[in-house]
Amino acid sequence: MKLGVWLAISMLSVVVRKNLSSAQFVGWKAFSLKEKLKSLKGALRHWNHLVFGNVDVNIKNCTSEIDALEARAGEVGLSPDELMARCNLMAKLWKSLLDKDSLLREKSRLKWIQDEDVNSSYLHAYLARRRNRNKICALRGHGSWVHGVDAIKDVIKNHFHHHFSEAHIVRPTLDGIGFPQVGGVIGLKIVLP
User: Fold this and answer.
1) By the 8 A CB rule, do 102 and 2 touch?
2) pTM (global) more than 0.85
3) Which first-to-last residue range defines the signal peptide (predicted)?
4) For all residues of the chain together, what is the average pLDDT?
């Protein structure tokens, strides 16, 4: 199971403390630590099987029980207790499916980390997800949806061309307009300090 799922369960810390405190090994510190971790691994495997069970078996059992209840509902209907049982089974099924998804994602991630730069399926799935998230598949332009790379490029180009271009406007110039000039003594006072 995903580490986050394990940490959410309070019994995990009890199992870890109990196992580490009860395991006593004689020898070098490194050897003792290795053996304690080995013992903890076995205890966690056993605990995981008791708490979570086999996720695939849980999914299969929930699905078969839900199918049986659905068949019964089609024939004679369900009692309130059976409706409640079906709701509980659906919740258990969704939880098991999420746990399985989380487990597969964590296993892929660990494999990717261990294999480093190997072109693993996790890496390709991650890159494909990122590409799809950053891709513009369709764009609304001029009141309708536009699809295709060239059409989307044209809509974007026209949008910015419209915003950053201006029509040629005839602006007044100052050619031929006479301005009064300052000259003589006043002009010298302005120029000289």
Assistant:
1) yes
2) no
3) 1-23
4) 80
